[in-house]
Amino acid sequence: MDETYLLHSEKGNKNITERKPRKRGGSAEHRGISHEQVCILVARDRSKNTIAKAVCLGRIDTKKIEETTGQYISMNNTICSDALPSFSKYAKEQNLIPLQKPLNFPLKLAI
Length: 111
What we know:
Elements: E1 2-7, E2 37-44, E3 50-57, H1 62-69, E4 78-81, H2 85-93, E5 97-100
Parallel strand pairs: 4-5
Antiparallel strand pairs: 1-2, 2-3
Helix pairs in contact: 1-2
């Protein structure tokens, strides 16, 4: 399970009131993860069943994780995720086994 962030797009909307329209992609006004970014939660099991959903604007929390993945995860599942505190808190609340990747984990594994 992991999350990724994309810049919120109002493509096709003629009446943007919250901000000035961006031309050809553009960039966010605020640095880092802010309310201008859409959080997309991605989860995949060993059978290669994948869910990827736009969850919220800004940083994800345990409530949003539960709303998105709650019907897909059972008590005997193991969650493999990064070290985001929301994932470990969610695993603890649901009595799941968390396997978290440390921050200094190498990108390539020798198998």
